[in-house]
Amino acid sequence: MAIPRPVRDSGSGIRDPLPPPEGPWKIEVEHLSFFYGDKRALEDISIKMQPNLVTAFIGPSGCGKSTFLRTLNRMNDIIPGARVDGRVCIDGKDIYGTNVDVVSMRRTVGMVFQKSNPFPKSIFENVAYGIRINKMTSSRSELAGRVEESLKQAALWDEVKDRLHESALAMSGGQQQRLCIARALAVKPDILLMDEPASALDPIATQRIEELIYQLKADYTIVIVTHNMQQAARVSDYTAFFLLGRLVEYERTDKMFTAPSEKLTEDYLTGRFG
Amino acid sequence: MMLRKIVSALFVGACAISVVLALVPLAFVLFFVVSQGVQSLNVDFFLHNPRPVGEVGGGMANAIVGTLMLTGLAGGMAVPIGILSGVYLSEYRGSRFASAVRFAADTMNGVPSIVVGVFAYAAVVLPLGHFSTLAGGFALGVMMIPIITRTTEELLLLVPNALREGALALGATRARAVFTVIVPAALPGIITGVVLALARVAGETAPLLFTSFNNAFFSTSLTQPISSITVQVFTYAISPYEDWHRQAWAGALVLVTIVLMCSMAARLAAARVMRVRGQ
Amino acid sequence: MRSTDLGFRVGIGIFAAALLLIVVAIGLSLANDSSQSLQRFGLNFWRTSDWNPVAGEFGALPFIWGTLYSSALALLIATPVSLGIAVFISELCPAFLRTPLIFLTELLAAIPSIVYGLWGIFVLVPAVRVVEASMPDGVRELPFFSGPPFGVGMLAAALILAVMVVPFTSAVAREVLKTVPMTQREAAYALGATRFEAIRAAMFFARTGIIGAVMLGFGRALGETMAVTMVIGNNPQVSLSLFAPQYTMAAVLANEFTEAANALYLSALIEIGLVLFIITLAVNALSRGLIWSMAQS
Question: pTM of the predicted model, to two decimals?
Answer without folding.
Answer: 0.87
